[in-house]
């Protein structure tokens, strides 16, 4: 099998075949593109999400906290706590686990998120450390935003720059290989992208603003996230390549290694659909968050406009990060 997320059709089949119970108190449940499940507890709702870190060596604890808390934020609510599972290979030492937990503790503290518990073990089942977190949030009844809420004619907004996560992982893990195409200043800047991968602030602000759907842009990049929103919402989209925000450093790396930045893992950017894209962009800008309108939700068909020509967007494939890592090894 290919490295990365399962093929979209395979995953959908597995989910559909194994859904044995549907409780009335689960308002939003598992499905293609849904970052979280939402459980009704009367006047409040519990929002839960889980994700592993498998594609990074350095800063893996940092990423583990943020990719899970970002999922909670994609519902428009603040994360409250996380559960942490660490599976370490036999060649690990205690300091490796301590380092990861220090990173997790520091990042969770920045978000006012409590470490609620978890599990840690050394196992032959992995050849590099795997960190999986489950994040939990709390919101008012019926207020959580879903991935499946996108509506025809919504503006499509993305925050900050795409590929912050993928670029940071590449530079932190393969600095020596990239010195030939990046300056020392650019390398240091890219390493710092890790500081900007949280989307909790914009997620909570957008939830209060009133939006129709949100989705954290992770594995599969922008086009993967857009496809998942469209599939979950039973709509299409049209986005414009020249409106999509990328840093010069990301562009340099992607051009050098023939990587598609629109399919590169992009924690640090939230995908939002709303009836009032310009109003949302202005509100986020006033809060110090860059945001861009990059297209529209359509009735059907998923399209990317590149150099004035429309290209049909196909279902998500393996993330470009895995291809980039192979080229950099």
Layout of secondary structure:
Layout: H1 8-17, E1 26-28, E2 37-41, E3 44-53, H2 60-73, E4 79-88, H3 94-110, E5 114-122, E6 130-140, E7 155-159, H4 164-173, H5 175-178, H6 184-191, H7 200-209, E8 213-216, H8 221-233, E9 236-240, H9 248-256, E10 270-274, H10 277-286, E11 291-298, E12 302-306, E13 309-312, H11 320-328
Parallel strand pairs: 4-5, 9-12
Antiparallel strand pairs: 1-2, 2-3, 3-6, 4-6, 7-10, 7-11, 8-10, 9-11, 12-13
Q: Explain this structure to me?
A:
The protein has 329 residues and is of the alpha+beta class. The chain has 2 domains: 115 residues, PurM-like, N-terminal domain (60s Ribosomal Protein L30, Chain: A, 2-Layer Sandwich); 182 residues, Alpha-Beta Complex (Phosphoribosyl-aminoimidazole Synthetase, Chain A, domain 2), CATH 3.90.650.10. The protein is 35% helix and 26% strand. It is built from 11 helices and 13 strands. The strands form 2 sheets. A 7-stranded mixed β-sheet has the order 8-10-7-11-9-12-13, sandwiched between helices. α2 runs parallel beside α3. The longest helix is centred in the N-terminal third of the chain and has 17 residues. The radius of gyration is 19 Å and the shape is globular. The protein starts with 7 loop residues before the first helix and ends with a helix. The relative contact order is 0.18. The mean pLDDT is 94. Pfam families: AIRS, AIRS_C.
């Amino acid at each position: 099998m290919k490295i990365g997320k399962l093929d979209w059709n395979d995953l959908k089949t597995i989910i559909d075949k194994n859904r044995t119970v549907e409780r009335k108190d689960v308002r939003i449940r598992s499905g293609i593109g849904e970052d979280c499940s939402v459980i009704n507890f009367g006047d409040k709702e519990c929002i839960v999400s889980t994700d592993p870190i498998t594609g990074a060596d350095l800063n893996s604890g940092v990423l583990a906290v943020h990719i899970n808390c970002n999922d909670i934020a994609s519902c428009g609510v603040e994360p409250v706590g996380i559960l942490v599972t660490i599976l370490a290979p036999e060649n690990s030492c205690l300091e490796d686990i301590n380092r990861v937990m220090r990173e997790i503790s520091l990042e969770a503290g920045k978000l006012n998120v409590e470490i609620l518990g978890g599990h840690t073990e050394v196992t032959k089942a992995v050849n590099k450390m795997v960190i999986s977190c489950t994040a939990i949030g709390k919101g008012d009844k019926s207020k959580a935003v879903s991935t499946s809420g996108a509506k025809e004619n919504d503006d499509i907004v993305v925050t900050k720059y795409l590929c912050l996560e993928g670029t940071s992982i590449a530079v932190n893990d393969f600095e020596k290989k990239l010195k030939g195409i990046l300056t020392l200043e650019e390398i240091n800047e890219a390493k710092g992208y890790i500081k900007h991968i949280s989307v909790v602030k914009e997620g909570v602000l957008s939830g209060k603003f009133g939006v129709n759907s949100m989705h954290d842009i992770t594995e599969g990049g922008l086009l993967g996230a857009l496809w998942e929103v469209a599939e979950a919402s039973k709509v299409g989209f049209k986005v414009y390549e020249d409106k999509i925000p990328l840093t010069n450093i990301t562009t340099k790396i992607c051009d050098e290694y023939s990587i598609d930045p629109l399919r590169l893992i992009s924690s640090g950017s939230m995908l939002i659909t709303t009836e009032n894209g310009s109003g949302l962009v202005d509100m986020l800008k006033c809060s110090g968050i860059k945001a861009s309108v990059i297209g529209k939700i359509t009735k059907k068909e998923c399209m990317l406009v590149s150099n004035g020509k429309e290209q049909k967007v196909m279902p998500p494939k393996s993330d470009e990060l895995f291809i980039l890592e192979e080229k950099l090894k």
